[in-house]
């Protein structure tokens, strides 16, 4: 008799898969899944083609192509003043998702506690559970998603191994402030806990808000794993080129898992990302400006049709408050929106351990062409 292992029995298919299927069936404008529907920059595509043509097509070193490791280290120095040894303090992974899994499996023993902010990115919880870790949830509340130090402190115990922070935060669009990172740094040092920071949206921040890298806090470089990915920064989510940065002992824990999961990522794509990271600093400002303009457009649309947008400070996601509408929950609303209005959003209850906490919101992605956002706007007017 064939049966699934216990460790995966409770994992359903992801909400993205479900909603995309529903969107396809109803020809809905899909503002659900967070991938750009426009072409990535030519400089990165040309670099990948060149790498393939130059026969950089065999296995990369398990920790990544040396050129890419050097480019990532240089970027950390340029953007955050963080000095990283490209040979011992960083490893390339199969997307940030690979970094998340390998980090959690490499650092968390069965029975260790892991603090997660919810709503959380959907792979954090399965990764924690597969490692045998015990999740402890800090629930961020709309509209400002702020943190209370005493409440967070109460989640730490002598079993806490790590705390996972995602800033800028998917799905709320929150960017953790300096004061909040001060608080997290203080608690990590007080309780001897490792911080894992998922910074995949580091270059997508709006208005006058700045993204801060926790590893630069006094005392935190020794206990922080910083992750990012080329997927969001260069709009190439299908390439799955990510990385994790930390002290050699931390990186070794990650490498030990990652080498047996996949051994290495795609060599020519790593070469192309190395080239892309050396692009002009203008690129990053333009990227943020383009997404800010999409954010403002979608914010106006949602407000106009009576879906109260909670304007994000970063990422390419926007939450809308639906509590005033007559729907039993976010799933019912998102199904209605897809099947009756022709626009798909994601029900955020999937990102809370208690789905009721996400029942009054819906998540829209604005990493789409203006034409697609305009079509969504046209359809959403039916809600009025
Ligand atoms: C917060 C967050 N972390 C990680 C990832 C995954 O990154 P990658 O595609 O590089 O695996 C995503 C993708 O949506 C994300 O939103």
Quick recap:
With 384 residues, the protein is of the alpha/beta class.
Task: Provide an overview of this structure.
- With 384 residues, this protein is α/β, with parallel strands linked by helices.
- The protein folds into 2 domains: 6-40 and 282-383, Aspartate Aminotransferase, domain 1, CATH 3.90.1150; 42-277, Aspartate Aminotransferase, domain 2.
- The protein is 41% helix and 15% strand.
- The protein has helices spanning 6-9, 15-25, 42-53, 66-80, 95-107, 124-130, 149-153, 178-191, 230-233, 248-261, 267-277, 282-304, 330-341, 370-380; strands at residues 29-30, 90-94, 113-118, 134-139, 160-166, 194-198, 224-229, 241-245, 308-310, 317-321, 343-344, 361-365.
- The strands form 3 sheets. Strands 2-8-7-6-5-3-4 form a 7-stranded mixed β-sheet, with helices on both faces. It has a 3-stranded antiparallel β-sheet with strand order 9-10-12.
- Helix 3 crosses helix 11 (267-277) and helix 5 (95-107) runs parallel beside helix 6.
- The longest helix has 23 residues, at 282-304.
- It starts with 5 loop residues before the first helix and ends with a helix.
- The model has no long low-confidence stretch (mean pLDDT 96).
- Bound molecules: pyridoxal-5'-phosphate.
- Residues 34, 95-97, 121, 166, 170, 198, 200, 229, 231, 237, 240, 242 line the site of pyridoxal-5'-phosphate.
- Pyridoxal-5'-phosphate is lined by residues 34, 95-97, 121, 166, 170, 198, 200, 229, 231, 237, 240, 242.
């Amino acid at each position: 008799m064939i049966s699934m292992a216990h460790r995966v029995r409770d994992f359903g298919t992801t909400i993205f898969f479900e909603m995309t299927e529903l969107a396809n069936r109803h020809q809905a404008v899909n503002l659900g899944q967070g991938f750009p529907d426009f072409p990535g920059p030519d400089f990165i595509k040309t670099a990948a083609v060149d790498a393939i043509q130059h026969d950089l097509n065999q296995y990369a070193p398990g920790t990544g192509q040396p050129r890419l490791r050097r480019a990532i280290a240089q970027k950390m120095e340029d953007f955050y003043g963080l000095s990283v040894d490209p040979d011992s303090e960083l490893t390339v992974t199969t997307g940030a998702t690979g970094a998340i899994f390998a980090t959690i499996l490499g650092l968390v023993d069965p029975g260790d506690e892991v603090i997660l902010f919810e709503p959380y990115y959907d792979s954090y919880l399965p990764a924690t559970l597969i490692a045998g870790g015990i999740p402890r949830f800090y629930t961020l509340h709309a509209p400002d998603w702020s943190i209370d130090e005493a409440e967070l402190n109460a989640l730490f115990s002598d079993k806490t191994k790590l705390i996972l922070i995602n800033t800028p935060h998917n799905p709320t669009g929150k960017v953790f402030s300096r004061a909040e990172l001060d608080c997290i740094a203080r608690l990590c040092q007080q309780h001897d806990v490792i911080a894992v920071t998922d910074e995949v949206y580091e270059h997508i921040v709006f208005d006058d808000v700045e993204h801060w890298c926790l590893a630069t806090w006094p005392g935190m470089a020794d206990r922080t794993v910083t992750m990012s990915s080329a997927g969001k920064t260069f709009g190439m989510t299908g390439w799955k080129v990510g990385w994790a940065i930390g002290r050699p002992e931390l990186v070794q824990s990650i490498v030990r898992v990652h080498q047996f999961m996949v051994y290495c990522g795609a060599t020519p794509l790593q070469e192309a990302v190395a080239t892309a990271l050396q692009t002009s600093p203008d690129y990053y400002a333009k990227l943020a400006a383009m997404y800010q303009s999409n954010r403002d457009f979608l914010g106006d649309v949602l407000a106009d049709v009576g879906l109260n947008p909670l304007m994000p400070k970063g990422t390419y996601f926007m939450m809308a408050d639906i509590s005033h509408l007559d729907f039993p929950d976010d799933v019912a609303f998102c199904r209605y929106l897809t099947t009756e209005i022709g626009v798909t959003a994601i029900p955020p209850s999937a990102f809370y351990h208690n789905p009721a906490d996400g029942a009054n919101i819906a998540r829209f992605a604005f990493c789409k062409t203006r034409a697609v956002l305009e079509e969504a706007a046209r359809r959403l007017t039916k809600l009025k």
